[in-house]
Amino acid sequence: MKKECGRKKRIVSIVMAVALVISVFAPAATVKAAGTPSVYKKQTSVIEQKSKTDWIWIENFPTGAQVTNLKSSNTKVLKASWNSNDGDLVMLRLRKAGKAVVSFNVVYNGQTTSLKSTITVKKYQRPCATFKVGSKNYASKFKKNSYYVTSHKKTPKNKVTVKAAKGWKLAGIWYSKLDGTNDKRIKNNSRVRFSAKKGQEVMVYAGFINKKTKEYQTVILVSKRKK
């Protein structure tokens, strides 16, 4: 459980960092001077069958800083928590659909930055009709959850093909190693080596935009080395 939580936290950091370059996602960010801690003013979190946890990512979070006075305006919708091991991530425990404002302070070297983000909690909808790596289509694995872990032996490069479901459009596809290296955007139908070295994990993830609501949904496929 601890390893799984750590994996998800690393994924959140990578995905949120990449999301900064997506024009449809970036406008919600708080405007701050360079180097000042900031968060997205608005964020959509999704309740899934297996996962009812999400995070708020704090950009420019100083090493050694503390999060204090953390509050959720509606604990029936979500509860928020943080500890020093979380670093730049505030954990959200999602309880039901609705809205809540999460507010907190970032304290570092005697300075305090007050931040808040409005979180809209919704039930998960699968945004992809096709999510193929090589000959295997993983779309059915994302019917009720946006995150799936599989395993592979060493393989040649495989073609990645992603198609959006009705009502959604594809915003982009990325390939990454979970140690933070080789993180890159890839074209649809391009080829990647979807097998990890021993002790390593890789992932392919795709971002989608709901045509009606304009909300953003990420689908993540992780591969670990098969023993």
Concise synopsis of the structure shown:
By secondary structure, this protein is mainly β. It has one helix and 16 strands. The two termini are 20 Å apart.
Structural commentary:
By secondary structure, this protein is mainly beta. It is 8% helix and 48% strand. The strands form four sheets. Strands 10-16-15-12-13 form a five-stranded mixed sheet, with no helix packed on it. A hairpin with a 5-residue loop joins strand 15 and strand 16 (216-225). The two termini are 20 Å apart.
Topology:
Blueprint lengths: L1 H18 L22 E6 L5 E5 L8 E7 L5 E4 L7 E6 L3 E11 L2 E13 L4 E6 L2 E2 L9 E6 L5 E7 L3 E10 L6 E3 L4 E2 L8 E10 L5 E10 L2
Parallel strand pairs: 1-7, 10-16
Antiparallel strand pairs: 2-5, 3-6, 4-5, 6-7, 8-9, 8-11, 11-14, 12-13, 12-15, 15-16
Key features of this structure:
5-stranded mixed beta sheet; 4-stranded mixed beta sheet; 48% strand; mainly beta; 227 residues; globular
Q: Helix/strand-derived class?
A: mainly beta
- Note the run of SSEs as H and E: HEEEEEEEEEEEEEEEE
Strand content: over 45%
Question: Span between N and C termini?
Answer: 20 Å
Helix content: under 10%
Tally of contiguous helical segments: 1
Gross morphology: globular
Kindly provide the radius of gyration, computed on alpha-carbon positions and rounded to a whole number of angstroms. Answer: 18 Å
Mean pLDDT: 83
Arrangement of strands in the largest sheet: 10-16-15-12-13
- Biggest sheet character: 5 strands, mixed
For the secondary structure, the number of strands is: 16
Runs in which pLDDT lies below 50 for 5 or more consecutive residues are 17-33
